[in-house]
Amino acid sequence: MYPLKFRPILKSMVWGGEKIAPFKSISTDQHNIGESWELSGVKGNESVVANGEYAGRTITDLIKEFKDKLIGKSNYEKTGEQFPLLIKFIDAKQDLSIQVHPNDELAARRHNGSKGKTEMWYVVETDPGAHLMAGLKKSITPEEYVERVNNNTITDVLEDFSLQPGDVFFLPAGRIHSIGSGSFIAEIQQTSDITYRIYDFGRLGLDGKPRELHTELAKDAIDYKVYPDYKTSYQKDKNKENVLVDCNYFTTSLYDLDKEYDLDLKALDSFLIIICIEGGAVITDNEGHSETVRKGETVLIPASTEDVKVVPEGNVQFLTSYVK
Q1: Residues facing 299 on adjacent strands
Q2: Has 109 been annotated as catalytic?
Q3: Which of 197, 203, 211, 294 is catalytic?
Q4: How far apart are CA 295 and CA 190, in angstroms?
Q5: Structure confidence at residue 208 (pLDDT)
Q6: Residue ranges of the Phosphomannose isomerase type I catalytic domain (predicted)?
Q7: Distance CA 38, CA 185 (A)
Q8: Do residues 188 and 85 lie in contact, with contact meaning Cβ atoms separated by under 8 Å?
Q9: For position 196, what pLDDT does the model report?
Q10: CA 55 to chain CA centroid, nearest Å
Q11: 256-281 confidence digits (pLDDT tens)
């Protein structure tokens, strides 16, 4: 197999902005584009291949045919024909709702065996005043949580962060969060579309009606513990792998390259996702298949690939992610 590109799945959201289309160099008549699903195995939203001989086929079709050669033996044993990660770009012109996601156990029990949602954010671009909320800054009880939602004070107990490009946040299932206005973010998460919307600032949806809240469902999903820091610190070195998050669900790294770099994948029993966030590069696998990847593009490297050579076009920054 060869490096695979996919057609973006664009999602109009009441809080969406205007950055995604130009960031990805695409034209569209859609308005309020809040999300571009770059690579998805979510049922009903399976990504479709955009390049080469498999163009027009879904990621699910390819997993059925190639199995562990595409996603790795361990991944295939755990998730079968569903791709285990969901990759998005998110453009927040307004604050998103305050929300939380269930863990695997709760999601399986409530939602017919579904997976929970642990995720991470990498801040790609920001407008002046960009911010987000993540985690509790004050200990509250489940009862106080419900009271604060009802009296519109839930934001008073959430940590609020001013943002700069390159900021990273890890969000295990159960952590209350909200992407704030002015944020353009790359999101890497478990394959799950289960969200409990806690609070929506009283706004109306695209249909002109209030959006549904899941206050009671969220009550049992929230991690009420207060942690010392919710922002991820990391070392950023030029022309090296900079590991951002290493958890049971994904391992994500940042690369900032201005010279040729070899990604040795021989020991990796997994696919590798490359998400380009700045510049461009030519990537060539060990069988001689080449693809150009540029800012806003995402490429899937099959698990059968042993080596990828990255040749920057000047300078390139990209994220990689895989599942152990």
Answers
A1: 5, 274
A2: no
A3: 197
A4: 23
A5: 87
A6: 7-112
A7: 13
A8: yes
A9: 97
A10: 23
A11: 999 999 999 999 999 999 999 999 99
Nearest CA to 216 among 201, 200, 198? 198
Distances (CA, A) of 30 to 24, 97, 233, 308: 14, 21, 36, 36
Mind giving me the DSSP string for 58-111? BHHHHHHHHTHHHH-HHHHHHHTTS-SEEEEEEEESSPPPEEE---HHHHHHHT
Secondary structure (3-state) at 205: coil
Mean pLDDT of the chain: 96
Six-digit token string for 86: 């969901």
Rounded Cα–Cα distance for residues 291 and 288 (Å): 10
The answer to whether residues 250 and 85 touch, using CB atoms and an 8 Å cutoff, is yes
In the structure encoding, which two tokens stand for residue 321, read together? 């992610």
What span, in angstroms and rounded, lies between the C-alpha atoms of 308 and 285? 4
Percentage of the chain lying above the pLDDT 90 cut? 95
Query: What is residue 251's predicted lDDT score, i.e. its pLDDT?
Result: 98
pLDDT of residue 154: 97
CB atoms within 10 A of CB 223: 15
Give binding residues for Zn(2+) as ranges.
101, 119, 177
Helix, strand, or coil here: 12? strand
Block residue for tokens 């929300």:
99
Query: How far apart, in Å, are the Cα atoms of 291 and each of 53, 108, 116?
Result: 14, 38, 33
Note the pLDDT of residue 204. 82
What is the mean pLDDT of the segment spanning 72-101? 96
What residues form the annotated binding site?
Answer: 101, 119, 177
Mean pLDDT (whole number) for 204-209: 85
Two tokens, residue 118: 């642990």
**Phi–psi pair at 194, nearest 5 degrees:** -95, 115
What is the C-alpha separation between 164 and 243, in angstroms, rounded? 19
Question: Of 31, 24, 32, which Cα lies nearest the Cα of 5?
Answer: 24
Strands (E) in 93-180, as ranges, are: 98-100, 119-126, 131-136, 158-162, 168-171, 177-179
How far separated are the first and last CA of the chain, in Å rounded? 20
